[in-house]
Amino acid sequence: MVIGRSRHASSAFATVTTLFFSWGFITALVDPLVAAVKGIFTLSDLQAQASAFAFFFAYFVVSFPAAAVVSRLKAVHSILAALVMMILGCLIMLTAANLAIYWLVLLGLFALASGITVLQVAANPLAAALGDPAKSHFRLVVSQTFNSLGTFLAPLLGAHLFLAGVEVKRDSSITMETRAQALAGITTAYVWICALIAALALFFWLSRRVVAEAAPLSRSTVGLFSALRSRWAIAGAIAIFLYVGAEVSIGTQMALFLNSDAVWGRSDAPFHVPLLGWLMGSDGVPGVSLQEAGKAVAFYWGGAMVGRALGSLLLTKIRAHLLLACNTLLAAGMCLYVVTFGGVGGGFVALAIGFLNSIMFPVIFSLTLERTSASTESTSGLLCTAIVGGALMPLLVGLLSDTHGYGFALIVPALCYAILCAFAICAGQARVVRVAGGSRAVH
Q: How many CA atoms lie within 13 A of 375 on its CB side?
């Protein structure tokens, strides 16, 4: 009987882990999309960043309703509903690409992100619950690794499909042929994503009993908004807001930043770097094109994937708040280097920030849960809502890059990381009221 339950849990966990990959892939696909729509629709940086705003604003709108829905429904039904919402988002994106209407692109991204929000609220606790409680941390690391794999692959595919021949530099223009090719690439990407999500929904539907039997979840909604009365829950939400805002701002601007003449636009240096040059795939034309720069963005997210694996080992030796303080301090310094010096070296430094981002989200999340006086469910809902930083911060960065250039715009993420360093230091001095498993700490 125990062996049967163990097999059920393992099968259910494998099923749920595929969800982590899917939402990581779709989220990171926003980065090359921002660069693509800037050229396709002849937008300013601020207008192009509206794509990131539409996507991440869904977290602000949907997180608390999603928490309420998941708490009342079984996780399986919530996940299936989320996948249906994501399919709807893909269909809107296909319509937008065929009609070449930018506001429909924004609507499609919002619908996609709404489904992903419900998916995250349901799948994160489910992955932790599927199996031996003592190994819940290991299971989440494995699931998050697959999420990072998705964020690494998406910019490569997106740059290949969206950015061929697209130019966004001043005084450049896009031909009707290139515009049609880029829109066709968006269509191709979201047709495949729609088909894969549909297959995933079918797979999950066929596996619904295995998942439900392995980890039935409660339907309690007690204290859903209690986090609003907790000082540390609010502090954690501000930290998540700043972190996601910084990470997304850098990621969505990265292709445009690397493509600029002040960085890699007139340099072949990146092509001489092993693996990086191979993945970028030189087109033989001197300098780095927007498509080649878009492929390089994969290293920003790939650094986070490598950093997450290394960080999980370091966290067994170093206290979480100290590691967070070190990473945020280094990230702030690297942003300031780009602001001050820029150039070819600044491009490599900017890509390396992804490595330092790797442990920030889970560590901020766990530090907050350990110190909040509110319920875990309420705090988690508030922290997910704070992901809206990924919607608002890129708009500010886009505005600055329009007026002062891409390099100077990194002053905003630098300030975010500096505040996060202060958060980490304060967390180290604060009293822990709840241990990792969710029970109250004994003093």
A: 11
